[in-house]
Amino acid sequence: MNIKNIVRVFLLAVAVIIVVNSSGRMYANDYPIKQDPHIHAGFIVVKDGQLQDFSDPMYMKIEPCALDSHDDLTPEEQQLEKAHLHDGVGDVVHVHREGATWGDLFENAGISFDEDLITYINGNPYEGNIYNKEIESYESLVIFEGDEPLDKESYLDQSITRERIEEVEKISESCSE
């Protein structure tokens, strides 16, 4: 084999390796690297018959998300990456960690509840502890706190839709992919 053929075979092998590695599968030491999720879900809170507004900057994660690498984040920053609000949108949660729960969002956004809650997920009553429920992509949570409104159905009808979540995904200024 002459040198030109060796170079051609070598370049072909490199090209194949690049194509295989760029097909969406990343490897380190022959093990797939697990990528952090980037999912979104919606929620509303009705307290004593009043829809709550969480679009105030006090509920937002202001600094840009560290999507490239989470290796150098402090424990506090890692917690904040789990689930948060940003861009002045107070009804769509952004999740960047496997296993993030609704409790993570409430902790990170500084949202607290005083009383027993009545919760619905995707329009169905949820009997479990909402703080421990893992946030799932495109789900919609409705929380009733305090006096249950007489027009509960109208609030359930206001639950955040998949279309609303997708709209927020399109306009998101930070944490976008």
**What is the terminal-to-terminal distance?**
46 Å
What's the helix-strand series? HEEEEHEEHEEEHH
Largest sheet: 7 strands, mixed
Unreliable residue stretches: 18-34
Q: What's the helix count?
A: 5
Defining traits:
177 residues; alpha+beta; seven-stranded mixed sheet; 5 helices; 29% helix; elongated
Describe the structure.
There is one protein chain. The protein is 29% helix and 20% strand. The protein has 177 residues and is α+β, with helices and mostly antiparallel strands. It has one domain (36-171). The strands form 2 sheets. Strands 3, 4, 5, 6, 7, 8 and 9 form a 7-stranded mixed β-sheet that branches. The radius of gyration is 22 Å and the shape is elongated. Mean pLDDT is 81; it is low at 18-34.
